[in-house]
Write a structure and sequence with these properties.
Number of domains: 1
Order of helices and strands: HHH
Radius of gyration: 24 Å
Structural class: mainly alpha
Number of helices: 3
Length: about 80
């Protein structure tokens, strides 16, 4: 679904009703945000991952990042 259509409709509605309606949107937005986070969690829970393999990749990536940063820093010190 294209998210820009409801977004533009909401902006247009808000612009047209900005001086007419004084409705607080805090609670509906909070509920919508919490539902969004809840459903994102459900989708994330459905994904099957190999946690050990992911841990190893993360450690290797972090190590290369640290080593690369140290290498660049040493090149800068020598000049």
């Amino acid at each position: 679904m294209n998210i820009f259509i409801p977004l533009l409709a909401g902006v247009l509605t808000g612009y047209l009703l900005k001086n007419k309606a004084k409705i607080s949107m805090d609670k509906p937005m909070t509920v919508a945000l919490l539902l969004l986070i809840f459903f994102m969690g459900i989708e994330a829970g459905r994904v099957e991952i190999n946690a050990f393999k992911l841990l190893l990749y993360s450690i290797v990536f972090a190590s290369f990042t640290i080593l690369g940063s140290l290498f660049v820093a040493l090149l800068g010190v020598r000049r």
